[in-house]
Design goal:
Number of helices: 15
Order of helices and strands: HHEHHEHEHEHEHEHEEHEEHHEEHEEHEH
Radius of gyration: 22 Å
CATH class of the largest domain: Alpha Beta
Number of strands: 15
Distance between the termini: 32 Å
Helix content: 40-55%
Strand content: 15-25%
Strand order of the largest sheet: 2-8-7-6-5-3-4
Bound molecules: pyridoxal-5'-phosphate
CATH superfamily of the largest domain: Type I PLP-dependent aspartate aminotransferase-like (Major domain)
Structural class: alpha/beta
Length: 422
């Protein structure tokens, strides 16, 4: 995909930057690390402050008005999230009770591994993940496999960075009880065919878990279309606050899963020897919840919707394509992943030939360009791809970026090349 003049003109304009106080106040910063965490719009910062100034009380505990308001802040956010990911009933009503608040996507995946995993896995069973997973979707499964005598099986990629149907059929067999795959790779930027993977998992009687940390921020995700049973993601990668993670799950499955953390608020009753769990979602939310964070995330989703999520998604497609193709055009840069810009959702990994990624990132930082360098919490993938130094640079975009940001990256990379080869 080569962008035409009108597409280039559209990404050269930027109607969004001023909504983000950090970007508006610091034009010297060229932020290309949204896959690690996004910037936050003023709407989110204002909501966080509004909660503490106007609604602050411990949610779910008090019978007085302020506490009820704090509770409503959480419950309103739950319904909004449900609607955002298509978790609605046949009449279009949001299924907020299927939304569980955690601290981040990592905690959501640990919750699934330790509750679903420990209840359905038995010796000889298999858990299937892909080789492109973030460590957060590998280590929880390594742990539960060790605890249950279960085998962890990896889906490998073909030369075009795809999980083929043949690979799915070979690896997701009758022993598979859980399949857990990312929708978008945080390194390669590629999108997996989750409906096809879910279909194979269900055909074999396995539960399907999706890591949506890199997809929910950038793609219109609908859990019914994905066909999955559980979906994990983080608010902080999509304009929301840090410390708010989401686990969505089908109500009937969540009902069967035992609790993860225990303590206050997650019980119906407690005796000296025993406890009866509260219904879902409270069963999975022990202790005081980050009501301000949930409320602020609610405002963040409202912000994305007010801009038209489809328009943001379309802009990010163009930015991703321009980023990929600008990098691929540099003869001293190797893109790690497809060179076709259409294949990338936000992130592009690359290396400057012969230069350590940490040096690249430090030199770029000198001109205000922020990128990530390292193993991106995906060491098995980098080993599998035999990436030199086990490390890459990664630039990633969100809708508040523009063409000039990417041009600044390219200029910075030319400087890096000159420093080492000039
Ligand atoms: C694909 C993927 N999964 C999971 C995570 C973990 O997210 P968090 O750090 O919010 O728990 C990340 C973070 O970068 C990610 O990219």
């Amino acid at each position: 995909m080569s962008l035409d003049a009108s597409q280039l003109a559209s990404i050269a304009e930027n109607p969004y930057k001023d909504d983000f106080p950090l970007l508006a106040k610091h034009p010297e910063i060229c932020f290309l690390d949204s896959a690690a965490t996004s910037q936050r719009p003023a709407a989110v910062l204002d909501a966080q402050r509004r909660f503490y100034e106007e609604m602050n009380a411990n949610p779910l505990r008090g019978l007085y008005g302020l506490s009820v308001e704090a509770t409503q802040a959480i419950e309103g956010a739950r319904d909004h999230i449900a609607r955002f990911i298509g978790a609605v009933d046949d009449e279009g009503r949001p299924q907020g009770s299927e939304v569980i608040f955690t601290r981040n996507a990592s905690e959501s995946l640990n919750l699934v591994a330790q509750t679903l995993g420990r209840s359905v896995l038995h010796e000889g069973d298999e858990v299937v993940v892909s080789i492109m997973e973030h460590h957060s979707n590998i280590i929880p499964w390594q742990q539960v496999c060790a605890q249950t005598g279960t085998r962890l099986v990896y889906l490998r990629l073909d030369d075009d960075f795809r999980i083929t149907q043949e690979e799915l059929e070979a690896k997701v067999g009758p022993r598979a009880k859980i399949v857990s795959v990312t929708q978008v790779s945080n390194v390669l930027g590629v999108r997996n065919d989750i409906p096809a993977i879910s279909a194979r998992a269900h055909q074999m009687g396995a539960h399907m878990v999706v890591d949506g940390a890199q997809s929910v921020p950038h793609l219109k995700v609908d859990v019914r279309e994905l066909g999955c049973d559980l979906l994990a993601f983080s608010a902080h990668k999509m304009g929301g606050p840090m410390g708010i993670g989401i686990l969505w799950g089908k109500a009937a499955l969540l009902d069967q899963m035992p609790p993860f953390l225990t303590g206050g608020e997650m019980i119906d009753s407690v005796s000296e020897t025993d406890a009866v769990w509260a219904p879902v979602p409270q069963k999975f939310e022990a202790g005081t919840q980050d009501a301000a964070g949930s409320y602020a995330f609610d405002a963040g989703l409202g912000y994305l919707e007010s801009k038209g999520f489809a328009a943001l998604e379309a802009r990010e497609r163009l930015l991703s394509a321009y980023l990929t193709e600008s990098l691929a055009a540099l003869d001293f840069v190797d893109v790690i992943g497809p060179e076709d810009g259409c294949r990338h959702v936000g992130a592009v990994a690359f290396n400057v030939r012969g230069v350590h990624p940490h040096d690249v990132a430090s030199i770029l930082d000198g001109s205000g360009v922020c990128i990530r360098a390292g193993h991106h919490c995906a060491q098995p993938l980098l080993s599998y791809l035999d990436v030199a130094m086990g490390s890459t640079c990664r630039a990633s975009v969100a809708f508040y970026n523009d063409k000039q940001d990417i041009d600044r990256l390219v200029d910075g990379l030319k400087t890096v090349w000159q420093v080492f080869n000039g």
